[in-house]
Amino acid sequence: MSALSEQQINEYHQHGYFFARQLFSAEEIRLLRETATSDHAMDQAASSRDDGTGTSVRLSLWNHPGEGIYGMFSRCHRVVDAVEELLQDEAYHYHSKMILKDAKVGGAWAWHQDYGYWYQNGLLFPDLCSVMIAVDEATEENGCLQILRGSHRMGRVNHILTGDQAGAEVERVEHAEKAFPLVHCKMAAGDAVFFHPNLLHASAANLSDNPRWALICCYNARSNNPYKESHHPAYTKLHKVDDAMVATVGRDDARRASVDFANLESNDRSATSLPDASET
Ligand code: SIN
Ligand code: MN
Questions:
Q1: Ligand 1 centroid to 76 CA: how many Å?
Q2: Chain centroid offset of residue 57 CA
Q3: What would the pLDDT profile of 111-155 be if each residue is shown by its tens digit?
Q4: Cα(127) to centroid of ligand 2, in Å?
Q5: In this structure, what CATH number is given to the domain that contains residue 110?
Q6: How far apart are CA 247 and CA 256, in angstroms?
Q7: Does ligand 1 come within 6 angstroms of the Cβ of 249?
Q8: Domain that holds residue 25
Q9: 98 lines ligand 1 (CB under 6 A)
């Protein structure tokens, strides 16, 4: 059985993204939020980077999904079967990250393509997919994801540094903004957006009273195995789990927070040509 409707697959190829509303239940998201917000290791691992306007973005990242609730989100059939249908290949976990966009202080993300960064990691093709899952409701006020619909058709554009972040070339973004409709990805907690690695996306700072945390799970196609080493893994078999494991592990206090966070401050950036960039 297909994990996706024909319409979702067409939207992905035509527009570079589609929404999967209520992909996760209120209970699953509650367990994820509760785990993540009380996870001392996640807080400790979070790296903070100047967004170039005075506020900072904070994120925690891990390369291997692990056996905790974060791993269950990124390994469950609901997500991985859909990604494999989009990639038309076996998918493996490239990394996941929690974007900790806190109330009042959460910083902005500059316009970028994920493949604008990942290209540096020895990936020949943009055969990757990101799945952003809303942990909190995302609105214009708290800095929801913004995308330029259809911009993945531009192919990869060059990225340069602004503050600590690498963003797509400003001149090209200005023209892209005229060529493609801007969409604010308003999401309820539990909604997901699947998006193409060449889709231009950004988000504004969170000046509201509400947090906007989001889990982003990123996958690479097995046939797109990187030709050189980087700070993200080469093909590693992804062991899928039943959808019910999300809640089962989420209720298991001893297990739910287990994952190995990457140390973003000491990443070996020699593998990238943007040595100081927020290259996630
Ligand atoms: C990202 O592109 O990795 C983060 C975007 C966001 O959280 O708004
Ligand atoms: Mn991104």
A1: 22
A2: 14
A3: 999 999 999 999 999 999 999 999 999 999 999 999 999 999 999
A4: 15
A5: 2.60.120.620
A6: 10
A7: no
A8: 6-251
A9: no
